[in-house]
């Protein structure tokens, strides 16, 4: 059993040299996307300005704008793209459901709901309090969806997860909207939860980045276990994997990553769905490769989406969630049409 599973996994993993080349290309794409995001926008900037941001103490309107406005925004885009892509990758591996993303378990809806209630009831709580509320909301949404899905005998199934996640997400979003209307702060709630990077500050990035970095690192360290779980539950148990413990840790990581992303930029859909599929098409099904590559390409995608949102109608800004949804919805329909089977 041991040898058979290892052979199956290794046979689907590209050679080391090939993987190294793709890793270098991925990092190069990330650097290029970051440079483009810093250079393009409503304000005219040059490569010299960008050089001075990192390698000079020179002050000036353009350089200050890049350091204090655009740089934290693009760092946040990297963190959020990585967090959502990795959390979606873990979700698809654990549930063996190709339609899984952080929204499936009610994570983003729970975090949005907690954020809205915190803004309405505790307006002076500060950013750290909002971040903690998002973690709690994401965890609560996950527990509710998993609890409802597991009520029926036979355990969890992709179909029950999708149905329970959709129902609970709709309910939690309704609670968010209702809280905004009742307390007459719907505009403030909508501005925060609509999904965007406008107004991101260094303080927010510094508060949230440790959680995302630690979450991604833990996901990479447990990538072999995710690969085994993605194949078959019985195989994992037969190999001596402590499935309950590993799943608990991984669901905690998913909750932290999704909650942190919502606390930083609000609701972002489809990234956690698209990136894992794209990465698996490029690298195979071994999560030792898929998870770190998802972090890189999720960051690249988020940077490109934010750059397009800022430039396509400059000096006005298009909501970045609209850009992502324009790509994500056809991708979702493509995955469904491709032949996803959801057994009950």
UniProtKB/TrEMBL annotation:
Could you name the domain of life of the organism this protein comes from?
Bacteria
Q: Which GO terms describe its molecular function?
A: transmembrane transporter activity
Instruction: Identify the main location.
Output: membrane
Q: Which GO terms describe its biological process?
A: siderophore-iron import into cell
Show the stretches that span the lipid bilayer: 21-43, 75-91, 103-122, 128-149, 161-183, 203-222, 248-275, 287-304, 316-336
Q: Which SUPFAM superfamilies match?
A: ABC transporter involved in vitamin B12 uptake, BtuC
Highest lineage ranks of the organism? Bacteria, Bacillati, Bacillota, Bacilli, Bacillales
InterPro entries, alphabetically?
Answer: ABC_BtuC-like (IPR037294), ABC_transptr_permease_BtuC (IPR000522)
Signal peptide position in this chain? none
In which compartments does the protein localize? Cell membrane
Q: Which family does it belong to?
A: Belongs to the binding-protein-dependent transport system permease family. FecCD subfamily.
Question: Which terms in the GO cellular component ontology are assigned?
Answer: plasma membrane
The question of whether Coiled coil is a record keyword is answered with no
> What PANTHER family has UniProt attached to this entry?
FERRIC ENTEROBACTIN TRANSPORT SYSTEM PERMEASE PROTEIN (PTHR30472), SIDEROPHORE TRANSPORT SYSTEM PERMEASE PROTEIN YFIZ-RELATED (PTHR30472:SF65)
**How does the UniProt record describe the way this protein sits in the membrane?**
Multi-pass membrane protein
Pfam families hit by this protein:
FecCD
Q: Which CDD domains does the protein's record reference? A: TM_ABC_iron-siderophores_like
Protein name as catalogued: Iron ABC transporter permease
Cytoplasm keyword on record: no
Q: Which UniProt keywords apply?
A: Cell membrane, Membrane, Transmembrane, Transmembrane helix, Transport
């Amino acid at each position: 059993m041991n040898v058979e599973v290892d052979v199956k996994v290794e046979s689907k993993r590209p050679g080391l040299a090939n993987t190294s080349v793709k890793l270098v290309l991925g990092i190069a794409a990330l650097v290029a996307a970051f440079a483009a995001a810093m250079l393009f926008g409503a304000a005219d900037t040059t490569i010299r300005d960008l050089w001075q941001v990192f390698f000079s103490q020179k002050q000036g309107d353009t350089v200050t704008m890049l350091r204090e406005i655009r740089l934290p925004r693009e760092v946040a885009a990297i963190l959020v793209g990585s967090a959502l892509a990795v959390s979606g990758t873990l979700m698809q591996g654990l549930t063996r459901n190709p339609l899984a993303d952080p929204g499936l378990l009610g994570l983003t809806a729970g975090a949005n709901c907690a954020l809205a209630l915190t803004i309405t009831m505790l307006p002076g709580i500060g950013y750290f309090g909002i971040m903690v509320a998002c973690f709690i909301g994401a965890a609560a949404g996950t527990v509710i969806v998993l609890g409802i899905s597991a009520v029926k005998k036979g355990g969890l199934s992709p179909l029950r997860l999708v149905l329970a996640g959709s129902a609970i997400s709709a309910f939690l979003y309704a609670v968010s909207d209702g809280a905004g209307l009742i307390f007459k702060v719907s505009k403030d709630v909508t501005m925060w939860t609509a999904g965007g990077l406008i107004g991101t500050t260094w303080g927010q990035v510094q508060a949230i980045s440790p959680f995302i970095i630690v979450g991604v690192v833990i996901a990479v360290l447990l990538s072999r276990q995710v690969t085994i779980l993605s194949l078959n539950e019985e195989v994992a148990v037969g190999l001596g994997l402590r499935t309950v413990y590993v799943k608990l840790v991984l669901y905690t990581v998913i909750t932290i990553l999704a909650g942190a992303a919502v606390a930083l930029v609000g609701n972002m859909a489809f990234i956690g769905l698209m990136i894992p599929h794209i990465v698996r098409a490029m690298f195979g099904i071994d999560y030792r490769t898929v998870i770190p590559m998802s972090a890189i390409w999720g960051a690249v995608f988020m940077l490109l989406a934010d750059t397009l949102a800022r430039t396509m109608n400059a000096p006005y800004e298009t909501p970045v969630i609209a850009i992502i949804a324009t790509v994500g919805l056809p991708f979702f329909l493509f995955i469904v049409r491709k032949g996803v089977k959801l057994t009950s």
